[in-house]
Write a structure and sequence with these properties.
With about 110 residues, the chain is α+β, with helices and mostly antiparallel strands. Helix content is about 30%, strand content about 30%. It has a domain of about 70 residues.
Length: about 110
């Protein structure tokens, strides 16, 4: 597992497996994707370090060099509305690597 995969896994756990009580306490912030991305860059110096698809939604992990991170999910079926799903601190990359591909037995 690479550092990126480990960070992605940690962000997924934080964003999607929170207890319902905690999720209700965190205000959901949704805006046009470019507005959220611009604000994360300007205020927190965060850029996209990982992304993937979750169904038909785009999942992005923004992070900064000082360890802050933000998970953003963008839904194309809602006019590309982007919502912050979770934030945190002390993000660090593990340095793990993906396993090498298996040799072709042919």
């Amino acid at each position: 597992m690479t550092r990126l995969a480990a960070a992605l896994a940690a962000a997924l756990v934080a964003a999607f497996l929170m207890p319902a009580v905690q999720a209700q306490q965190m205000p959901l912030i949704c805006q046009a994707h470019h507005k959220i991305a611009d604000r994360l860059l300007q205020e927190y110096r965060e850029i996209v370090v990982a992304h993937g698809l979750a169904g038909d939604s785009l999942f992005e992990l923004f992070a900064s060099s000082h360890g802050s991170w933000t998970v953003v999910v963008t839904r194309p079926n809602m006019n590309n509305l982007a919502c912050i799903q979770g934030t945190g601190t002390d993000l660090s990359m593990t340095g793990n690597k993906y396993p090498p591909p298996k040799a072709d037995p042919a």
